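Sample A.
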Amino acid sequence: MSSFTRSSMVPQCFACIRQVLGNDLSLPLSPFRTQVRGKKKLRLPTTINVKLLRDVRGYGRKGSIVPVAPGRMRNIWYPSKRAEYMTDAQLKAIPDVVIERDFTFGMEQSTEGQEAGQDDPVNIQIKLLSPDKATQLVKTYVPEHLEFYRPVISAGETEAVGNAMPQRNNSAAVDTSKASETPAKSQSIAIYGSVSTADIVAKIKALMTLKGDSAESVEAARVVLNPEDIRIERKDGLQVGEERDRIKTLGDFTIYILVKGGEVVQRVVKVKAQE
């Protein structure tokens, strides 16, 4: 199998090529001749001269000849009949033609309007409720008991969850067995979907906004309450698995509504089983 070998007669460097061609690299026989495909295209004009058919703010009055971007003329001004094209012959026929854009045309009126607005500012007054008034509205519109309904987790499911929990050591198992032998004071029934402080605030706002169109009801809707303003009382302390801002069992729970700057309003949340 024959291999391709480079001929020793072919020049291998620019010096050899110059010696062969006599320092003239423009001959067509030169493989290194730069090929010129054509002249470079001239850059298109960035603006064209048009005649305004009506006053245009920032450009000039009707009848003025101004430079404008071709795209603006083609897409906006010509379809809306704001201006018309001007040929070179038409421009030469106009004596002492002035082609200039007036950047300040129409700006004086807008500036005067802005200055007038600054001289006569709009007086906006927001009347905030006093802490005493907000406390009074909360006491009036929020009933003594707030009821919530949640589905109950069955005892079998609760035991399954308890058995699935791993025991850390034998001592823990002994303590658990002893605790199971002693009768509990009250059995807590777990529920699906806890009652959070956000749920309590949403219920309070709904009660304070659905009392009619009277002046007092309008003021009640302006009372500001956030989930952070609700405190849930825990008589036995925070138990394992419980959260400060959530109720996860059935029962009656005392809550405290903290009105900003006002008194603390006490109410009771009743979580009942959903049938």
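Sample B, a different protein:
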Amino acid sequence: MTERPSTPPPQTAPSNPGVLPRAPLTPEQVKNIEINRLKAKALRSQRDSDARNNTDAPTSLKRSSSNLTSNNLAAGQKRPYSSTTAGVTSTLRDARITTPAAKPGGFRPLDEIQPARNFTKFVEYDFSKMTDTKGGFLTAEDDPHNRALHALKADEKPAHMTMKEWERHQLLRSLREQKAGPFEPGLSVLSAGEARGNKKCRECGSLEIDWMWEEVLRCSVCNACKELFPDRYSLLTKTEAREDYLLTEPELKDAELLPHLERPNPHKSTWNNMMLYLRYQVEEYAFSEKKWGGGERLDEEFERREGEKKRKKEGKFRAKLQELKKKTRVEAYRRGRRGDGGGEFGDEVGRGGKHTHVWGRPVEGDDGVGTKTCVECGMEVEELEF
């Protein structure tokens, strides 16, 4: 009997149009894939057996797992269930490998569990013993770990100091800042030729100068000369130096150009410190060629600025007055177009006619004079009867 020819199976269309279907694997490729698979399984079983032998499991588990080596298992053979369940994988967080003799307090498995790195720095609070401030913040007593709450203020007495020790500490600190008393620089007893380092008063030549002024203001002058020449050594505020000598803000902030002292603001302690300048230093710079070149030029500049301020103020006033006039003219023009530009007091405005009063009943007051009121506009007139 002859075989009937069969129809070849229909070819499936490729999922990606324009891409040719993959050719079938050759017998040689299939053989290589199988060999590589068996090698990988053998290497995996070898690593598993080595890992079981290196663990710290009990001796009985080691004996049972030592018999299951790669030599006893052929390629593709599965391990028995007893060998997979008997061994315990060792990790760094496994508390069961800790022996009771590891710590003096006994065997505590949870002690071996370490927290994550991001949670190692934390403070544990007992909320049952804390004060409810109703504001969402902690008090200094409830938060002993907060350094900002327990930091000492500049003018606050430390707890370990007595009041007498604190007053002495404040006195020494003020003397140190002013370079007075025991903190005043020493004077040499050598002759004038040998003691070249000694600084003298620029007015009288005295060695008893104000060391704080010499350090901050770079001016060697004694206290007696400061009182004797107030026109040179008086202190000017920043506002006075800016308004009287027409100095700019960058010039006043330049410590190399104009040194200054800083004092607490007398108006309010929370405001910025008051900056004080030496009068003769401000005048020397303002009258020099770098700035105005003399007192006459400074006066001319001051008058020019004052005149400019006055002209600007007058111009602003004229502009507002002109705007007001324009608004008034426009309103008068609109009323004239509507025909209600004239009239007397009490006339109706905006309706194109005169207002006719509708008087009510006269009401007699305490002085015997009657008063009538218009019902529509509210105008009142007095009425006398003879």
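Observation for Sample B: Residues 59-66, 191-196 have pLDDT under 50 and may be disordered.
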